[in-house]
Design a protein that fits this description.
The complex is a heterodimer of chains A (275) and B (468). Chain A has 275 residues and is of the alpha/beta class. Chain A has helices spanning 14-18, 53-56, 59-65, 89-102, 114-122, 141-150, 152-159, 168-171, 178-187, 193-201, 227-236, 258-270; strands at 27-31, 42-45, 70-74, 108-112, 130-134, 214-218, 242-243. Chain B has 468 residues and is α/β, with parallel strands linked by helices. Chain B has two domains: 20-175 and 349-465, 3-Layer(bba) Sandwich (FAD/NAD(P)-binding domain); 190-344, FAD/NAD(P)-binding domain, CATH 3.50.50. The longest helix of chain B is centred in the C-terminal third of the chain and has 20 residues, at 396-415. Classes of the chains: A alpha/beta (275), B alpha/beta (468).
Chain lengths: 275, 468
């Protein structure tokens, strides 16, 4: 358990009460172990442009084979979830908290890319058992600069509300077969421009409720999230990031997808509990 | 920190017997906190205390969770048709939303399933002793408490366990408040309190008099309008009968939009009066008395159907009951009516039958506790009450933050005693404070709070605790 100092919780939420987020049909994909071994459920949250499909490719089945009930949600306007023009970061956060509260037991939230930003906001509205931020894009001007440097042509339109276009070298390592890479790229969608702007504005998340332990992992060769950003993200939660050299931003789709997932699950098994 | 109930169900028997009480052994539960009741308030207490690292034993006299919202519980005040009156965003716990697919005002069966899911999701049942009633809670040295329990209904022996702290969450909507009338004993018709009303079949085909216009009385009058052969609705004042929807939105959400723009009370009252005037209209033309107060000065009524049935002649509004006769009822305006069934929807009174009333600051024996934030008794830093509130919104959010505050104050006592002393003097100074605008003097308003005023006070208390 941590000491007695706590970041300030804000308990008056007039705007959330008076203007609740409108419901949108959600896609949740899952793989559940045949025998319930008492492991906590995992809820994977894809980043902007990705859908639950990104985790259905490898991670859900593998997590289930190791005893963890595994779920992936598509944020509204992504994957198989309902289209949602004008979606905000608050709406995405709402989708994650709703999906988590629907699970039978207290869940571990795993956010990838900008999904990690959504998870960090969701942690303020749901006491997760633990959280894992995978190649986290936590927003703010630093995110924009890094993206511009890595891919100026694809990023510039996004700064003016256009679509963010990521190219193959940003997302995947060299070993991923071309056909797979093309298949994944073809499935990419986009986040709403309001949410995109909010990502760049980078309003910090409110403090997490219930002291979840947090793990950060990523690749030093990620061309969306520079190593400094990984270290910064991990530092916020008082730890060092776990690194997987040679992999691209989309660790869950890359050829060596199993290594980071196994590390994540090992951490959960060893995790002594709440801080 | 030892958290004695982390694994498996609590078992006081396995801990070492400490000194005895009245010749019986007392098992010492160390740093464990005792929670009384597993309704909404007790459940959130168990969750938040364990989340803050405390071991918890919770005692519940019924065999399931949900308290009032489990309408099979013998003391449940809920009837077949009950729906929430506070809309979803105001009612759910702040860290466990109700499903998006539910309506704005869920049915009581959904509310119960919400508590069952909450208990399962956070694995709370392993801390709860079901079918076990707390019969005595007594202070012992060092701000600790001896809690004596037995099987519900008085079977089996009593056992006493010693706890580091106690949180009382026994609810305050189960002990009927019954008015007395001359001649009531001789009345030949049927008389009951709303707490034993469950099903509209109880009204079918009868001439029914409903007394009281809280939310219960209004719901019952509507059901009588639909089921009974005749319905009189007796009130001792006029009220603001507010619909559940205004301007196309749940009424509480519209009100909070105004609150979040910090529209002053007087202006909100004026707007509300205007809106009611334009939608519901002037009720005095139906024979309903003119309200003797402004809106928000009595506990809000949320009922869209009452006025509708009055307008259709299915509900006859009548004044207060003067007295009963063997064959009927005299009203204060001299009218005589002849109901076969009289239902008193006259509300409830708090009851803490296991605690010395002095401990909760009820010095004159009126039954009204004197606490800070309606939760913390002066002089007893390890005791708190949760859920003893009558908010103008949902209760669960408020009970959640009360129990978070209690958990943090207990943690502070252990880690930073000096700051805890400052908290204790805050409790002493603030006992009896109110958190609502002006309200009519009635025991039904003892615990009336405006949710914004109240949560502001809790926010300040949390900030002070954390030293910011
Ligand atoms: C008809 C009706 C409708 C309502 N509608 C709303 C609404 O729409 N929104 C809202 O927010 N509130 C509403 N309320 C208020 C309602 O009281 C709360 O919603 C809520 O049920 C209070 O929860 P609680 O845990 O404080 O008390 P309860 O639900 O009463 O739970 C107390 C628990 O403690 C147990 N207990 C009591 N004494 C002992 C003992 N000595 N030993 C062991 N266990 C004990 C009881 O068995 C019970 O399970 C309504 C109330 C009524 C009467
Ligand atoms: N979700 C729902 O649908 C729902 C339904 C029912 C109740 N509730 C909640 O449950 C709680 C209890 O409500 P309640 O309606 O049972 O009780 P209540 O709010 O206390 O209302 C009691 C009513 O009876 C009247 N009354 C009391 N004593 C009387 C007497 N001696 N003679 C004549 N009239 C008398 C009161 O009049 P005065 O105003 O003059 O005191 C008032 O009209 C409230 O918080 C309420 O909001 C919610």
């Amino acid at each position: 358990m941590s000491g007695t100092t706590e970041e300030r919780v804000r308990i008056l939420r007039g705007r959330e009460w008076a203007h609740p987020v409108r419901a949108a049909r959600r896609e949740v994909l899952s793989a559940v172990p045949e025998l319930d071994e008492g492991c906590p459920p995992l809820l994977f949250v894809p980043g902007f442009g990705h859908g639950a499909w990104a985790f259905a490719e490898h991670w859900l089945e593998h997590a289930a084979s190791r005893g963890f009930p595994a779920y992936a949600v598509s944020l509204r306007g992504h994957g198989g979830s309902e289209p949602a023009p004008g979606a905000t970061l608050r709406a995405y956060t709402h989708d994650v908290v709703q999906a988590a509260a629907e699970l039978p037991r207290q869940a571990v939230l795993v956010g990838h890319g900008a999904g990690a930003l959504v998870v960090s906001h969701a942690l303020a509205r749901y006491p997760a058992r633990a959280a894992v931020l995978v190649a986290p894009v936590l927003g703010g001007p630093a995110t924009a600069l890094a993206a511009l440097r890595a891919n100026p042509v694809g990023t510039l339109p996004a700064l003016f509300g256009g679509a963010l276009r990521l190219h193959r070298r940003q997302l995947f390592g060299r070993e991923l077969p071309d056909a797979d890479a093309r298949r994944h790229l073809a499935r990419l969608g986009r986040a709403d421009r309001r949410a995109q702007w909010q990502l760049l504005a980078g309003r910090p998340a409110e403090p997490a409720v219930g002291h979840p332990p947090v793990l950060v992992l990523g690749s030093p060769d990620d061309r969306v999230v520079p190593p400094a950003a990984l270290t910064r993200a991990a530092g916020r939660y008082g730890a060092a990031p776990l690194l997987f050299p040679g992999m691209g931003h989309d660790l869950m789709l890359d050829t060596r997808w199993q290594e980071p997932l196994d590390a994540l699950l090992d951490w959960l098994v060893k995790e002594p509990g709440r801080r | 920190m030892p958290s004695s109930t982390e694994h498996g169900r609590p078992d006081p028997e396995t801990t070492t017997p400490a000194p005895s009480r009245d010749g019986r052994p007392v098992s010492d539960r160390g740093d464990t906190v005792c929670v009384i009741g597993a309704g909404a308030s007790g459940l959130t207490a168990v969750k938040n205390l364990t989340e803050h690292g405390f071991g918890v034993d919770c005692y519940e006299r019924e065999t399931g969770v949900g308290g009032a919202w489990n309408w099979r519980h013998d003391r449940s005040p809920v009837y077949a048709s009950t729906h929430l009156i506070s809309s979803r965003p105001f009612t759910q716990f702040p860290d466990f939303p109700m499903p998006d697919s539910w309506p704005d005002y869920p049915h009581h069966g959904q509310v119960l399933s919400y508590f069952e899911r909450y208990a399962d999701h956070f694995d709370l049942r392993r801390h709860i002793w079901f079918g076990t009633e707390v019969v005595r809670v007594e202070p012992v040295d060092g701000d600790r408490w001896d809690v004596t329990t037995r099987s519900t209904g008085g079977y089996g022996p009593e056992r006493t366990s010693r706890y580091a702290a106690v949180l009382v969450a026994n609810g305050h909507n189960w002990s009927p408040k019954l008015p007395r009338y001359e001649g009531l004993e001789e009345f030949r018709g049927e008389v009951m309190h709303a707490s034993s009303y469950k099903d509209p079949a109880q009204l079918r085909g009868k001439r029914v008099l409903v007394v009281g216009a809280g939310n219960t009385g209004c719901d019952l009058a509507v059901e009588a309008a639909q089921q009974a052969s005749r319905c009189w609705h007796s009130t001792r004042r006029g009220y603001w009968y507010a619909p559940k929807y205004v301007l196309g939105r749940p009424a509480d959400q519209v009100n909070d939009a105004l609150l979040s723009w910090r529209v002053p009370l007087r202006l909100r009252q004026w707007l509300y009066h205007r809106t009611l005037r334009l939608t519901v209209g002037d009720l005095t033309r139906f024979g309903l008395p003119k309200p003797d107060h402004r809106v928000y000065e009595t506990h809000p009524i949320a009922n869209s159907q009452l006025v509708y049935y009055v307008g259709h002649g299915e509900i006859t509004p009548v004044p207060e009951v003067a007295r009963f006769h063997p064959g009927g009822v005299s009203l204060t305006d001299g009218r005589e009516i002849d109901p076969e069934l009289v239902v008193f929807a006259t509300g409830y009174l708090p009851r803490f039958e296991f605690l010395d009333p002095q401990i909760l600051g009820d010095a004159d024996g009126s039954g009204r506790p004197r606490l800070w934030l309606h939760a913390f008794p002066p002089g007893h830093p390890t005791l708190a009450v949760a859920g003893l509130l009558q908010p103008d919104s949902g209760l669960f959010t408020l009970a959640h933050w009360q129990t978070v505050l209690f958990a943090r104050s207990l943690r502070l006592r252990r880690d930073r005693p000096q700051r805890a002393a400052a908290f204790a003097s805050r409790v002493a100074a603030g006992a009896g404070e109110r958190y609502a605008g002006r309200v009519k003097d009635s025991s039904r308003h003892w615990f009336e709070v405006g949710h914004v005023d109240y949560l502001r006070a809790v926010q300040r208390a949390l900030d002070d605790l954390e030293g910011k």
